[in-house]
């Protein structure tokens, strides 16, 4: 019963991390640049994401332009698009596999060892999805920091860390936590073996004519 509760907690935690990764992939705030407005009284903020670039002025007007070509993106955003899509796909696969292996589901009822292996596999897939989120987020942040302190880069080309990067780091931690809980929620093989041997010995002790030395 305790392991089943841990499985539910781990599954919910990992699902929240997967949802955070989806939001981080969708929003355009990967790179933030302060741009000069059309007049002295206006200030514009440029957002660059893996799917679109947006300009938000002080008047609240937001205009976005979807990236038409993948080759026009920087290398870090190209890798981010591929790895974030892979992370989302791995998260969906992990939810399907882990939900089938959880004790509260009816799939493969009675096959405890098989269900435990499904749960562990789902937890490992969640951790792998978190790794796929961590790589592009850290790569993009590293390039932003390197360009910010590079004197050869013009001030207009310098960028700040966007909200999507912090959301991606949080998603990585939550995915890793949920996947670890799922992996640790299944008892070890030795414990299952001892439990089955104990149950078999108790059953045989109730049969007349059997003498079991415990």
Question: What is the highest CATH level, the class?
Answer: Mainly Alpha
CATH topology: the name is Butyryl-CoA Dehydrogenase, subunit A, domain 3
* Poorly predicted tracts of residues: 189-197
Helices, by number, come to 5
What portion of the residues fall into strands of 2 or more residues? Answer: 5-15%
How many distinct folded domains? 1
Side by side, the strands of the main sheet go 4-3-2-1-5
Secondary structure: number of strands: 5
**Approximate helicity band:** 55-70%
Summed over residues and divided by their number, the pLDDT gives a mean of 81
Shape: elongated
Largest sheet, in brief, is:
5 strands, antiparallel
Structural class: alpha+beta
CATH architecture: Up-down Bundle
Q: How large, in whole angstroms, is the Cα Rg?
A: 25 Å
Ends apart, CA distance between termini: 27 Å
| SSE ordering | HEEEEHHEHH
Topology:
Elements: H1 2-26, E1 31-36, E2 43-48, E3 52-57, E4 62-66, H2 75-101, H3 112-148, E5 160-161, H4 163-184, H5 189-205
Antiparallel strand pairs: 1-2, 1-5, 2-3, 3-4
Describe the structure.
Strands 4-3-2-1-5 form a five-stranded antiparallel beta sheet. The protein contains five helices and five strands, in the order H-E-E-E-E-H-H-E-H-H. The chain is elongated. It has a single domain, classed as Butyryl-CoA Dehydrogenase, subunit A, domain 3. Strand 2 and strand 3 form a beta hairpin. It has 214 residues and is of the alpha+beta class.
């Amino acid at each position: 019963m305790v392991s089943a509760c841990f499985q539910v907690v781990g599954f919910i935690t990992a699902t929240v991390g997967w949802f955070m990764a989806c939001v981080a992939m969708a929003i355009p705030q990967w790179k933030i640049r302060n741009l000069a407005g059309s007049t002295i009284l206006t200030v514009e903020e440029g957002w660059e994401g893996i799917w679109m670039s947006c300009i938000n002025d002080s008047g609240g007007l937001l205009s976005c332009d979807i990236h038409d070509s993948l080759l026009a993106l920087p290398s870090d955003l190209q890798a981010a698009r591929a790895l974030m899509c892979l992370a989302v796909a791995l998260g969906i696969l992990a939810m399907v596999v882990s939900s089938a292996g959880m004790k509260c589901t009816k799939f493969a009822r009675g096959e405890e060892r098989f269900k435990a292996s499904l749960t562990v596999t789902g937890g490992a897939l969640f951790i792998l999805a978190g790794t796929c989120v961590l790589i592009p987020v850290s790569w993009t942040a590293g390039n932003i920091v390197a360009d910010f302190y590079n004197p050869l880069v013009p001030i207009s080309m310098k960028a700040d860390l966007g909200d999507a990067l912090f959301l991606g780091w949080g998603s990585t931690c939550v995915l890793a936590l949920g996947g670890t809980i799922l992996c640790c929620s299944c008892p070890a093989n030795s414990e299952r073996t001892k439990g089955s041997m104990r149950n078999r010995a108790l059953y045989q002790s109730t049969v007349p004519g059997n003498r079991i030395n415990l």
